Amino acid sequence: MIVLGLETSCDETGVALYDTENGLLAEALHSQVDLHAVYGGVVPEIASRDHIRMLLPLIQQVMSEAGIDKPDAIAYTAGPGLVGALMVGGGMANGLGLAWDCPVIPVHHMEGHLLAPMLEDEPPEFPFLALLVSGGHSMLIAVATLGDYRVLGSTLDDAVGEAFDKTAKLLGLGYPGGPALAALAEHGDDTAYQLPRPMLNKPNFDFSFSGLKTAVMLEVRKAEADGCLAERRADLAASFQRAAVDTLIAKSIKAARAEGLERIVVAGGVGANKLLRKEMAERFEGEVYYPRLAFCTDNGAMIAVAGALRLAEADVASEIKAQARWSLETLGVPSGT
Fold first, then answer.
1. Which domain holds residue 193?
2. Which one of 138, 169, 209, 322 has the fewest CB atoms closer than 10 angstroms to its CB?
């Protein structure tokens, strides 16, 4: 079975074809970073319009590259995300489903991230702990099997990716801020500032990064008052990154031990962070899995593989499903699994 995956939840237009026997056949990704950079963040209306502009050409590109006339099913991101952007992908999926007479599968965006490591040559086996970290999410999830998810902890305020972006803005870095901050941190001393590790001593597995961000802001103001921010930016970036990564790793290991899990999957945009990848592998005694770097950010391949694993739920094209908020715990195990 060949599944066409469409991702339009935010500011990346992703398209991919996944074969249940032969794996990923083709994929393409268009980023809107340049469109939104002038605004310092994603503008929903602009995002939706650019998805409309790019989605069909990308579909034609991957179909041509794979030599496929039509897929057996179409999977699309139905949420969570920007409703207008989700409607573009949902509308395209349902329209093509009617034209090609093939079923469609609404996919949870975060389940796509969670399953992205299944695209690798050595995918993780169930059960495992998932650390999902991005601009909108910081979550720890006990994954028993496909669809059997239990959220152990989540962010109480800023997600870690959002904290990276906001800290980058405090330091005068460009958009998107997270990668720029990580690049600057490579030239700094991560012990220069003693920044807080939020909620490490709490008995739960929740995250909070607003206090860490505030601590950086106070140091930035102090450096500005002293006229030495330019020379201290790299140290501030490195110290912030170290504090954020330490928090993510400590909470993940604590949760894995509490649940008796020997595998951790790290996914989402922040999963591309070099320090996080290095330190998690060194400090966790079990196995650690990541998607390849290209599949850490939003992409069509993760939606295609998630759709392939949920083929039992494929149905005829009908109403477009688009949910700004959608709990992973409501998905359930696919019938026949």
1. 126-290
2. 169
